[in-house]
Each structure stands twice: as C-alpha cells, then as structure tokens.
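Practice record 12: protein with acetyl coenzyme *A.
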Amino acid sequence: MAETITIIDDRTGKKVTVPITDGVFPSSALRELDPDLRVYDPAYLSTAACSSAITYLDGDAGILRYRGYPIEQLAEKSTFLEVAYLLLNGNLPTADELAKWTYDVTHHTMIHENMRKRFVDGFHYDAHPMGMFISSVAALGTFYDDAKDIFNKPALDRQTLRLIAKVPTLAAMAYRFSKGLSFVQPENSLSYSANFLNMMFKIGNDDTVDPVLARAMDILFILHADHEQNCGTTAMRVIASSNADPYSAAAGASAALYGPLHGGANEAVVRMLEEIGSLENVPAFIQSVKEGKGRLMGFGHRVYKNYDPRATIIKKTAYDVFAVTGKNPLLDIALKLEETALKDDYFVQRKLYPNVDFYSGLIYQALGFPVDMFTVLFAIPRTAGWLAHFAELLGDKEQKISRPRQWYKGPDERDYVPIAAR
Ligand code: ACO
C-alpha cells in the first residue's frame, strides 16, 4: 500500500494528504494548506533540499555508496581519478574512457604563471594555506573566459577538468609558498596522488614517490570525494543555484569546509591529541568533554549514528603508512581515546563514534603535511563531488535559486530616533 501523510491545519480544519516516497513528502503540501505556512527547520535537520543520484548514505547502518558502489570496494579496488569520473558521469569508465580522462586531467595540471607570480606571491608569509586555497580557486576562474558559460556542456566539462586537475597544484603552491620553497611543476609521468605528493615534497631532482604513500593518499582522496548534502556541498549548490561560475562556487564550498566543525576537524583532532600529550591524561580529558568543556574532536556526526565507514578504512590505511614512515606517536593517544569513549555512557547514549577525521590527521602528519594543510587535503578530492553536485543541480528542473524563508523575531515597526535623543 502506498504510504501517505495527512496534515490537518487545526486553525481552518483544512487537510491535505500527500504521498511519502522513500521517507520524503513534498513541502508543496503545506503550501496547499496555507501559502504563508513555514516549516521552522534550523540547520535543515528534517529538510531534503534536493533529490540526488550521486551518493547514498545510511547513517544508522554506517553505509556510504557513490553511485551505488560501496565505499569499501572503491577504496580497495579503484583510484581517485576513476572515482571522480564515476561521481561526475554516473558510471564507472571503460578502459578507453579512463585512459582519456586520466590523460586529460594529467595535461591540465599546470597553472598560469601570473597565478603564482602575482597572486600567490602576494600573500603574507604566514597565510593559512586554506585561506590561500579558497582565494586562488576563485581567482583561477578569472583566467578562463568561458568560466561563466555554465549551460554550455562542453564549456562546463572544461571547467570541471581544469578544477580537478589544478586544485592539487594550487594546494601544493600554497604549501611551498608558506615554507619559502620554490614551486614544483606537475610531473606528467606520475599518478594524480603521486604527482601531488611530488609537488608538495620534492627536493632536488628526484621525482620518485613511495607507492605505498601514493596509494594511501589516493585512498584518502577516494574517501573524501563526496558525502552528499553536507555543509560544503550545500554551499556549492546554493551558490550554483544563482548560476555563478563553478570556480566561485567551489571557493564558497571550500570556505564552508574550512570551519572546525566540518573539514577543519582533522586539524582540530591533531591539536587536541597534542594537547592531551600522554596516555595518562586521557581519562581527565574525556571527563572534561563530558562536563561540556569542549568536544572530543573527530567524534560524532550529523548523519552517522554508527561507526563512520570511512573511519574504519582510514584506520587500516594508517597502519600501511606507519609501516613506511614509522608510527605517529599520537596514535596511541587516539586509540586510547577511542577505546575510552566507546565504553563511556556519555558517548554511547549520544551515539558518538569516530568520524572520518579522527584518524586522517594522523596519516597526514605521518606523510609530512603540517596541520594547517589538512583541510586543503580534504578540499582537493571534494572538488570532484562538488562539481558533480553543481552539474546535477543545473540539470534539475525542480530547482530554482535557493532562497529559504525566515521566522522574523525582531522588533515591530518603530520610529527612527535622532542620535541626540537616544
Ligand atoms: N564531543 C562531545 N560531545 C558531543 C560531540 C563531541 N564530538 N558531538 C556531539 N556531542 C554531543 C552534544 O554536546 C550533544 O549533547 P547534548 O544532547 O547533551 O546537548 C549531542 O552530542 C548531539 O550533538 P549535536 O551538536 O546536536 O550534533 P550535531 O549533529 O549538530 O553535530 C557534529 C555534529 C558537528 C559533527 C558534532 O558531533 C561535533 O561537533 N563533532 C566534533 C567535530 C567533528 O569531528 N567534526 C567533523 C564531522 S565529519 C566532517 O565534517 C567531515
């Protein structure tokens, strides 16, 4: 039997019955009852702002799938570029399609010299790399006169290719600038992730990158490539809905990602672990979190009320990396925190489990990234997801410019008072 919901407006006795499909009913039902009726839903806890065919997430069951494929299978068998293709195109590429896509991305990794000389060089010496990343992604759009031609598919495909190819170069540039190191040009013989590591850390003429570390980077990129309607992706869609160009939208999405409650959490996790300092301080730290004196960073999620499946894969990847780099000394503190929290009623009752950020920072640190690069490492692969949502939104006939309503609680009309009389 088809599921329906009946809403009765007790003020008027008017009622409306609408279908529930996959747990969703249309808000047009409320407009039918009364066009001025509003749902008050701060932080969109009960609002599906769009339909999407990109990523499926079941937070209670700890399931994450891109275009139907379980994240565990993609992390084990795929590569980031193949996953990016999947997110953007809906299906896994054939061998020819993947070869062309890889060739195209690899051959669009360079950045206009002015970007480096005039733009990146203009930052203060200690600028946060995420601030540099956000602004340089926006600035990149000014180099392409077809950037705004978003309803022209070949033009939009070009921007997509450019963004995915160039964000690692911009990220590495921001890092090398902050270290006072000369920039490293992209190396076409390397994979996407190996090339990024090379642009980050190359010293002298050696372009070799440890394959275990390159694979770990690629897995982390796969895990971060999309996560449906989170804060950053929602920002991407909202900006796209005004038909802004994808560079400006990706810069806005990156800004949303920057905050410590979102992509900034992995940086906050490492800072927290450093502050805890040693195993014997773990119980006192957990106690302080329970007393409301801060949060256990890397724990909890709006949607996952179970172990974040990405955290499981990351934890395993961490051991592969540590086998090459040596163990990150903060790992023991992280393990002890996890063990303590998962046994503690406070965390159990609130269904707080490790999220993707709990272990990722430890790997990044072992790979040699400073903590202020962590959110940039999230933004690189998420660019693929953002662009998939950008294109999906533009093609969705049910969408219009995003424009939520508000519940006004300010003062009623009052007369202006001259300053001398206040
Ligand atoms: N440590 C301690 N308590 C927590 C934590 C935490 N990490 N997360 C949630 N809680 C508590 C809250 O205090 C609240 O308790 P209460 O009911 O007694 O008031 C309860 O759990 C529910 O928390 P909310 O803040 O309502 O949950 P929400 O869904 O709004 O927040 C969020 C989710 C922001 C991720 C939150 O869990 C958090 O701040 N975690 C730490 C930051 C973090 O790791 N962010 C990364 C998320 S993953 C990502 O963005 C890639």
